[in-house]
Design a protein that fits this description.
Helix content: over 70%
Strand order of the largest sheet: 1-2
Number of strands: 2
Oligomer: single chain
Distance between the termini: 52 Å
């Protein structure tokens, strides 16, 4: 039974609203969505930050499968199997079954993972004692390698982006080396503002790419109709299997829910050509991985995605340390809230999914324009709060054209490197002191 006292209802609802937005806005992703609440996140507790993040990830997965299934538009990056199979859905009934089946299958996967974590919660504190500098360094290296390898760019391009991101992350006074790096003014001693870098070199390129995408690939849905009341369930044994696959794949650095979704989809593809079953299997694994991807961050303090690196920044601003926080009690509270999040996700993705067709009657290019304005206002609020308006504006003017010019590249290697560069350098220095 859910302990209502441990549920932060307001935080859950805010995170679910952000997740709904992320799922319906193709290409924005978790990091860009979190940027919209940048000032608010700085004042949240550790539990509230984890609830916000798990809400955004989980709800965007639930909702992202709907535009992917209906229109072949990837609302969430892990919904690619639904995009692939959307062209194979031949009837109204198949579309309905795919949407409702993905919702219920995803709910099954999420609840299975939550139950498993509750059963294992007494052992999670013991796992963190295996944490060590070599392991931390190895995990960061492995995550960096996978992100570079799977970014979708040419390898040398991803490597170059990773190097540039590392340099940007090290700008400022470095306490580990006790020296300034690429500092040309007093304001640069504090480093390049994270909000500016993420907006200009991550959010803007994504929005610029999808703005052109929808301009040339707008799909006419005026004659489409569908029913969502036909519920489709996978065999419970198969659902349990794909929940396990998603749970394990979700902990793989750099891939998480994407790998969980793709592995489940590929396994099911060996057994059936039914596009509905393939979509449902991918969503079971997808949702299962949405929670397990947090475990390396909570246990080892290692972010395995760029969005988790951003989350870790906010957590550390509020006093989080994996070596000091009691993981067991924190996990119990998080699981309680996670169950509520999934109930909300089920309601959004199942009986309310028929409203999505009205959303896509809006020209998404105008929506993206509004998103840019909101993000810019958020960043400038941070600039005003730090008495650095002109510094932020100069950086925006310099970096925005670069971001737009690189819009056809996957900027994840650059952003991930920017976010972990100082932590990676600190680990290398500690490793050297311990072993050499």
């Amino acid at each position: 039974m859910i302990d209502v006292s441990s549920i932060a209802l307001g935080t859950v609802l805010l995170g679910c609203a952000m997740g709904l937005f992320a799922g319906l806005m193709p290409g924005l992703g978790y990091s860009t969505t979190l940027l919209l609440a940048f000032p608010l996140l700085l004042d949240m507790s550790i539990l509230e930050l984890l609830i916000i993040y798990s809400s955004v990830v989980t709800i965007s997965i639930y909702v992202g499968s709907i535009p992917a299934t209906l229109y072949g538009i990837p609302g969430d990056t892990a919904s690619m199997p639904a995009v692939y199979e959307s062209r194979n859905l031949k009837s109204e009934k198949q579309v309905s079954n795919a949407i409702s089946g993905a919702a219920f299958g995803g709910f099954f996967g999420s609840v299975s993972v939550a139950i498993f974590c509750v059963l294992m919660v007494n052992y999670l504190d013991a796992i963190k004692y295996f944490y060590s500098t070599p392991l931390f360094l190895a995990l960061l290296t492995f995550a960096s390698f996978l992100i570079i390898w799977n970014a979708g760019n040419k390898i040398w391009v991803s490597v170059l982006l990773f190097i540039v991101g590392s340099i940007l992350g090290l700008v400022g006074y470095n306490k580990h080396l006790d020296m300034p790096i690429l500092v040309f003014s007093d304001q640069m001693y504090g480093g390049l503002p994270m909000g500016v870098v993420l907006v200009t070199l991550f959010a803007v390129p994504n929005i610029a790419f999808y703005f052109n995408y929808f301009k040339s690939n707008k799909k006419d849905t005026s004659n489409e109709s569908y029913s969502i009341w036909s519920i489709y369930f996978l065999n419970p044994i198969k659902s349990t299997f794909f929940s396990i696959v998603g749970f394990l794949a979700g902990m793989v650095p750099g891939l998480t829910t994407i790998m969980a979704s793709m592995i489940s989809y590929n396994i099911m593809s060996y057994f059936t050509k039914d596009p509905v079953k393939r979509i449902v299997a991918s969503e079971v694994g997808n949702n299962a991985g949405a929670f397990s991807c947090l475990l390396p961050l909570l246990i080892f303090g290692v972010p395995i995605t760029a969005s988790e690196a951003l989350l870790l920044f906010f957590l550390e601003q509020n006093g989080f340390s994996n070596s000091a926080v009691q993981i067991g009690p924190l996990m119990k509270d998080l699981v309680n809230n996670f169950l509520l999040i999934n109930l909300i996700g089920l309601v959004l993705a199942w009986p309310l999914s028929n409203l999505v067709k009205y959303f896509y009657k809006i020209d998404l290019r105008y929506v993206f324009g509004v998103v840019l304005v909101v993000i810019f206002m958020t960043v400038m609020y941070s600039a005003w709060d730090n008495y650095s308006v002109w510094y932020y504006l100069i950086l925006i003017v310099i970096l925005t054209p670069i971001g737009v010019a690189l819009r056809n590249l996957q900027m994840l290697p650059l952003i991930f490197a920017y976010l972990i560069s100082n932590k990676y350098l600190a680990s290398v220095i500690i490793f050297k002191q311990l072993y050499f």
